[in-house]
Amino acid sequence: xxxxxxxxxxxPYGGMQRNFLKIANECHRRGHQVIVYTxxxxxxxxxxxxxxxxxVKALSxxxxxxxxxRWLECNLENYSVDVVVGFNKMPGLNVYYCGDxxxxxxxQKLRSWWYRFTGRYRHFSSYEKAVxxxxxxxxxxxxxxxxxxxxxxxxxxxxxRLVMLPPGISRDRCAPPNAAELRxxxxxxxxxxxxxxxxxxxxxxxxxxxxxxxxxxxxALPNGLKGRTQLFVIGQDDPTEFISLAKKLGVADKVxxxxxxxxxxxxxxxxxxxxxxSYAENTGGVILEAVVAGLxxxxxxxxxxxxxxxxxxxxxxxxxxxxxxxxxxxxxQMLLADKNIWRENAIKFSKHADIYDMPKKAADVxxxxxxxxxxxxxxxxxxx
Length: 384
Known about the structure:
Rossmann fold; seven-stranded parallel beta sheet
């Protein structure tokens, strides 16, 4: 069967993008032909995947996405596909991978009142309704119980369309047998001695991920502790405004920025803790990647995967409503604490938790939709 995957942008270091590729690969493995329609593609293209660059341009994001949707609708009418799988909210989907939090909730609770009178709001609100409004057709692949309840609250989405999936963490993120050796090599490479403390923050979209909060927390550390603490930031984003903020706070010499990279598992072994004070996060795959690597985590409870940190007893949660003082205090406490217990708890959790089979279960849902459409076509043929 021919499957159309719809994704505005592909780059190799985004969490949603990595999951897209895992699901697409599993569908290919099951014998489906997979085509992805995207506005841009960075990185290598698998030989089994047909990549179609949608030729539309616009000055604003919403306008570009509208043109993308219209082009896609016209193209799919002339280029037969069996199922349309979307990784961004848009009309015309059969299956939607829910990689973003509830837009309506953010608009009402995290934005100024006038924001809902803007064209940007009208666009993204209407595209979210096309997926979640009661009476719409797409099956929705969910990862966060918190977000599921928000969507049901705002759209009264039918329970039978919401399918909860496990996270789908790659097993190469788990702490390997030679973790101690990897850690030592890493710390030697970056000139970190036994007394130095390395805080890691990973994720594209520095604003949403709360990097400003992290920089303020670093600045608030007692001088002695601050003197031996480093913050490494990895993400596919422009760091300019955060470099300026770090300079303003007097911690620029404590912060190192890295673009997205393939050796993240080594960083997870070399660091002392992961800091993830996100403002909003549907899932947060890096949270679980840190847990299975045995790295203690400090995370805001608004993140979809934050509950795994509590379940594994592998770190601390910053509870809502967010307080910078709370973050500052917990960062200091975790840096000073004995981290071995968190590490041992995390590794034990990684050995039995149901967190690895997301691509298979997502492909199961897609196969169910394929089967349903086959049955509809067969029934229609018999009626004629």
